[in-house]
Structure formats: C-alpha cells, structure tokens
Amino acid sequence: MALPRFYPIFDDVDWLTRLVPLGIKLVQLRIKDRPEDVIRSQIAAARDLCREHGTILVVNDYWQIALDLGCDWVHLGQEDLDDADVAAIRAGGLKLGLSTHDDAELDRAMSYAPDYVALGPVYPTILKKMKWHQQGVDKLTTWKSRIGDTPLIAIGGMSVERAAGAFDAGADVVSAVTDITLNPDPEGRVRDWLRVCG
After folding, report:
1. N or C, which end of the chain is more exposed by having fewer CB within 10 Å?
2. What are the backbone angles phi and psi of residue 113, rounded to the nearest 5°?
C-alpha cells in the first residue's frame, strides 16, 4: 500500500484544523496527558476534519477510542504495544503502524504484520527524551531491506532539507513534528514539505 510521503504529527486538533486544508493527506494526532473526554472529542473532531479533506488520520496510542469512534488507523509505540489488544485492533478493521528502534523491536513489530514501520530518531530530536541515540540514514536502508514492501517511516529530527536523504536511503514516508510546529511560519513550512514530498 502506497502512503502519502509526508506525515506530520501534531499534539492538538487545532493544528490539524489549521494545516490539513493546505493539502496534508496523512497526519497523526498524538495527544499526551489530557483528560479522556478531551482526547475523545479531539479524536472525533480530527476524524471528521480528515474525512472532509480526504486525509488519512492516524490516532496515536488510544486504540480503544479509535475503535469506538470508527477511525481507520492507530499508531503504537513499543510500550503501548505491551498493553494493546492487537487482535481487537485488527478485528475492528484498524490499520496499524508501529515504532521501532532496534533489531528486537523490529522483529517484534513485523510479527504483527504492521501496515507501516517507523524508525527513529533518524536525527537527534528535541521532542522528547529518548534512550535511543540518532539512528542515522544508513539504518533506513537496512530496515527497508528487512521489511520489504511494508512502508517505512523516517522520524526524528527530520526537516525539509533532510527529507531527500531519507528517501534516498529507503524511507517511503518522512514524518515531521517540530520542524513545523516551531517554525515561525508553519503554513509556509507545510507548503515546503508538500513540494519536497510531492
């Protein structure tokens, strides 16, 4: 399955409302540390917005809410996977993306036949404290050779300027967070990404 090549991640539906209409066709809503009613209402609003714009919405972590609300995709980190009911996720028709950082995590991820695999952080990231150091673009090539036709997402420290190198190394999709949200002109930066990822 071919996914759009640009995959921004935002922590609030307000970002989606602002930027999805610019032409984003794949987006993740990653909400942390909010009350469940807020999370549920944000996911529902994001679902409706993305359907209106023909955009794939990926819900981070909250797979049960994603099922309840009739969403199409969920993304799980390795820790999230420990507590997730993957059988229920699949039975509910959700597509599944999984994070990986090392060989053991990749083997585990592939045992679930994911709809994409994310590798990160490709470059150092300021988004969150991680025990993983930068993976480097060469690891994208290694990962792609191991996962075959499964789409590979490059995440972590990615920028418009670094996107081509990630694609050349084997990434199918490049994900961005702070390159957009910390930019003085997020709309302009999204347009730059859409040009580069074509």
Report:
1. C
2. 50, 60
